[in-house]
Fold each of these.
Amino acid sequence: MRGLLLIVIALPAFAFHGAIRGRVVDEQNQPLAGAQIWLIGYGNGTATDTAGDYFLEVPMHGEFRVVYQFMGFKSETLTVSVAHGERVRCDVRLHPISLPVPVVESRERRQTVQTAATPVPTVVIPQSAAEQAGKSTVGEAAGMETGIQLQKRCSACEASEVSIQGLPGRFSLILLEGMPLFAGLASRYILDLVPVEMVDRLEVVKGASGALWGSDAVAGALNILLLQPARPLEARATYTRRSFGNDLAVQLGSARNSLGLSLMGAHSDREPVDQNQDGIAENTFYQRNLVLGNFNYYPGLIWRFNLGGSFGDEIRRSGAVVPDTEYMSNPLAEKIKTRRWDLWQRTVYTTEGNEFSCRIALSQQKETGTVEMQDYFSQEFNLFSDFSAEFPHLRSGISLLRQQVQDSRLFSQPAHEDNLGIWVAGREITFAFIPVAHEILPAVRFDLNSVYGTVISPYGAIKLFPSFGELNFSAGTGFRTPTVIFESMENLPGGFQYAIRRAPDLSRETGLSLQAGVGRRFISPELIADFRFNIFRHQVRNFITAELTGIDTFSRRAVFYYYNRNEPIYSTGIEVSTTLSVQNHTNFSLKGFVLRPEDHAHRPLPFVRQWGVGYNLNWKLPFWKVELNTTGELNGPMVIQTVMGGGMVVESESPVYPVFNLRLSRELGVVRFSLGINNIGDYYQLPRSHHEGRTEYYWGPVIGRELYAAVSIAL
């Protein structure tokens, strides 16, 4: 089940000990692009981008000597103390060689996509990079990374999924502040609802990594780090009016001495869109609300306490646009109300270089409504706890989870699972016989599940730092236990009403992946260029697929039956990306991927895009102080399935289509105004009607050109 076999917070891929960030400028406050920053006595280092911004993770909490260096300026060394998990902001003004010591100020933004200092190939997407690219939500920002596709396959829930390297979104584990998200679709609503203005950064790990994260990390993982307050009082608010809905988000924060508090509220709604005027909405129209709170207490470098929680509710409707009184009599109408809450705590204690942590999390999600002209009810409850220990060269831990599920469509009685997970991983391992700087991470995890038996998940990664760039290699396994609430819909044609049935003996899906990549950065006084190339190979056994078995005689809906394939499926491909930053006014990125998702007989899998090319251009106009952003995508074909009037499924290939977006923004003090157009070419797939007027869509946008205006305030 979703989030069933998950791992502790202090795992190596996202074992975040702390960071130092800020901006390096000269006496006239002009950014110094390419300034070098490193920690004395450690291999950690980075360089500033064209905006002078930098972000440097520390290998452990404590006190560090940080060197700032730029040609023609006096090198400066600062002493910076970083508590566990703290992000210290240090902006430094460097002076010509003959001038005195630097001034340290407080700033908060960094603007480039960079690689985190970890042996696991991790990509960091900062908040400001997402803002420059015109992204509005966490899900859209995740799609900035090459090989990640943001997909909406569930026509009933309008929830986004992060597909990594061609595998369905159910194989991507979503975490919030290092905490795995529970309660069915909770993670996907986070992707759609949390605005980028409230996020500090995103961390992406690609490849099967069950040893690092437990269940669901078959394709990889996405960690969402929220913006933490750094001043006694902070406030942010963003309102966006769109052609078919509204988005509103508000955040309040305060940091005083050892205390930190952050509260966020978000609202989103969408109106029904019926392009062909047949009374059936092409989209899901909904109202969503989310409240999230986070409290931190840092009494010193010895221990840290974190308490957080969230509450969300939603009302969504799909299919026929009818009054509330007709949902029980119209087979094409569906309405569901969702309420969910999460509560968690983390306690970390440090002594003599060793670290011990305890985490406990509770979550519950309830759904009620009308599906297939019948009352629908589902409920999911999770109790999760873990304990971990970190030593100089070793990390280990144990996790316990109990999950209970009810679903009126799929189970005659409640189902439950219990799981015990034990893991161990190396830390900062190096070998003298390797002639170049490197980091190695071995890990293994054992899971004992009350329903699906024992799972062993090994993992290994190495990062090399030769003179010409950076090399990454990783190999790992992952697994996923079958879920029951709105899962596996990646395999369904989207946009029409369907009924779900499942085999009684569904077993866990297991994956094996290999990753190899190379990166290179070129720095000159006026230009910074980053280049990345990655190849990958995934294999998934017991892949759960959905097969159309007919039309339900009662509700007249297409019936899909879920079962495990006997043969494995594969996804093989390459990813290429480059980013150019010129001075402090222009950023350009270009990315592309080619992949081949197929079964054992080399037949392509449906609903997976086989190639894509995208670009992003951000230009700060010096005269009007306006920021111009344009993004575009050329979307390659995918195999699509069309359900014909008689119930027969016909496969074909979707056409290639482009999508272009444009945004203009300007900052006036603490206020930013933005105007934008999404899908400038007004490209969308015309809806088809089968099964007595049912609207269907499969591969392209269902909504054409969209206009929006936004205003943001940061105090």
Amino acid sequence: MQYDIRQGSLKELEIKVLDMGMGQERPAWFTHATGTSYDVVFGSAMEKLYRATSLRPEQNILKEFIPYSGLLNIDEDIDIEKVWNSIAEKLELDVSALRARVLPLSALYSISDHSRSLLVALSDGVLPSNSGGGYNLRVLLRRSLDFINKYSWDIDLSQVCEWHASYLKPQYPELIEHLSEVDEILAVEKRKYRDTRKKAKRIITKLKDKEVTPEGLINLYDSQGISPEMLLSHGLKIELPQDFFLRLAERHEKNRARKKEKKFREFVFEGIPKTEILYYSDYLLLEFKAKVLKIIDNKYVILDKTAFYPTSGGQASDRGYLNNSRVTDVFKQGGMVIHRLKDIDFSEGDTVAGKIDASRRIQLTQHHTATHIINGAARQILGEHIWQAGAEKTTEKARLDITHYKSLTQEEVDAIEDRANEIIAHAIPVENYIRKRNVAEAQYGFRLYQGGAVPGMDIRVVKIDDIDVEACGGTHLKNTSKARLISIISSTKIQDGVVRLEFAAGKAAFRYIKKRDRLLSESSEVLSVNSEQLPESVRRFFREWKEQRKEIQRLKQEIAELRKADLKHQFRKINNAEYVVAEIDADIEESIKTARGLVAGEKAVFLLGIDDKISVVGARGEKLGLNMAEIVIEVARLLGGGGGGKPEFAQGAGKRKDRIKEALKLAESMLREKLKN
């Protein structure tokens, strides 16, 4: 490091610093002269883990092994087994004995390291999930649980996190404050892990006697959460790549790289200054005058200053007029705000009058400030792990995606809505000001960036008391009371670790409530009950519907059995095989069940299930060598559809009901020909 940039300009440092990435742990290790870095870095937590597992490092062996341990580098293309044998030979130990001494310790050190990472990350609001950094966190958690199961250790990760927090309290006292949240999140993750282990048993029965490739192992982990350790613990023989978790991480890095996209046309500007923003200080600044700096393709306009808000931060752009020309879109590129217009009636260099659609601006501003209010309310109700994961504000409604480890209950949604409306009722000032980045970060921390990274040395801070603070460029109310009312429309878990709250504020909230009341009134009329009796009436109808559904399923089963019994009498013989070709009244699911229930040994079944469309199903027993997929494809094509599958089972669909007889004849002809041969 050569320069101090905290004041927004380069100032040469008196003492130049080389940041070599050593951190504070290596000096602690070599100054304490312990056998491993873990003993000093994890201190009392490591000592408690030794006692919990009755493991003790054999210092004489570790002293000789550690200098060679770097050779077991999974990042390099090496023969790991050969390296293990080479190290064992140098230490004059049997390789199995060396592994037995080293690997359990390695697992214990991994648990200690992973649990501390979990403690810090969860305390900072990161949640385990199936994407992004949360994915890596879940890998650490499940890897720790795999080790605990593998060695049958009596270790509770929540307790290990508590040990770490106590040991680190002098340096990081805030970790203790988050232990109850950490414990709750880990409990949810452990339940998911147990469910996955149960699911692994069912999947393993399908995988027995099949080769599972390294790519297949990665797919199993990615799609089902089933780790190689789970497969091994259930008796499945697999070849586990030494770099399994490295390959897993590489796949997710590639997936993230694919997700970049462009939304607007890119322009090339030369000699045009940044646009001065007028809406920062006053969202009610709806009229202004500005100079036209550039017109592109007679529809894109750049001004020296503007009060028009460009699409960004999930907030839709303003609409309005420049002189008599209608503004249809506004977006930002670099420091320039670009206005898209229809029928431009001015030239470069002219001074134009800007007028913004007031009702649209006010509604969007209410929704943007309401997003900050709900974000703060959710954090107060659910915990400090709540971060904004995405947002969108339109004139009809808005949405806020928050990080949370499970779906919200109706009680939690109601509590968030109540707290949000309390914040409105308290009429709290909404502050916004420009600060140097380093000053804002020192004052508020990285919660500033939960709405996304903000470029530049100067950032705009939007603050609502101690409820919410973010770096934000959107239009905002001056007081929470101006949001008038917030009504949460829905709560949905949109992905692992992320919950979406849809809501309306201001006039949009009143419109939503009015529409909801009208629907309730109409529903009450339909059911001939008053609104208070509506919930019980709906529950009663739902119970009756479920009972009727069960009865329909029972009748369907009876029909299926009768159909199967009838079809058994329709089998014809050819050589040593039997076959049936028939038309039945059934959908695709029932047709498949019927066909599979009839095939065995040297039997072949071909069915056309007649419903809204025609289902084409072909199946044969294991002792027949014919390809049913070929027949299904040809018949489905004749019926104006398509199909496919495997030789033993195939399915398709068609729509030409006028060709059913012709299709049955074709199927029988092809089936007989194949069975003769």
